[in-house]
Design goal:
2 helices, elongated, about 90 residues, mainly alpha
């Protein structure tokens, strides 16, 4: 395995990880901003008020996107295993 091959494999793994986590992080960020604005407007500073909606939103996103996420991981893993014989030379 050459250095360029290792860099390419690492780059692809990081890209897949970013694509998988980006929707979850964006939803968590948006819910957090909305809840923070609501807390600032109403002056209610309850910790569970920001935690519970984030958990519910992230859980909903995970349920909605799980088939796509699993398909992406399976495709990546199958591609990696298909490349394996060429990597061991």
């Amino acid at each position: 395995m050459t250095l360029q091959t290792a860099v390419d494999l690492t780059h692809e793994a990081m890209r897949v990880a970013l694509v998988l986590t980006l929707p979850i992080l964006l939803v968590s960020l948006l819910v957090g901003v909305v809840i923070s604005l609501l807390q600032a407007v109403t002056q209610i500073n309850e910790m569970t008020l920001s935690f519970l909606p984030k958990v519910a939103a992230v859980g909903g996103v995970l349920l909605a996107l799980m088939p796509w996420m699993v398909r992406l991981m399976v495709d990546y893993t199958q591609g990696l295993f298909a490349q394996l014989p060429g990597l061991t030379r």
